[in-house]
Design brief:
Number of strands: 0
Order of helices and strands: HH
Shape: elongated
Low-confidence stretches: none
Number of domains: 1
Largest sheet: none
Strand content: under 5%
Distance between the termini: 26 Å
Mean pLDDT: 88
Length: 36
């Protein structure tokens, strides 16, 4: 997670980044469940 944040442009809102990352994690969880 930290490395992703380091790639963000200066001044990028952290709550937006967290929201995006949470969405990606949720999608990954759904995909993993489906493959079982």
């Amino acid at each position: 997670m930290k490395s992703v944040r380091q790639l963000l442009p200066a001044g990028f809102p952290m709550h937006v980044a967290d929201s995006i990352l949470n969405g990606l994690q949720e999608a990954a969880n759904i995909i993993n469940r489906r493959s079982d």
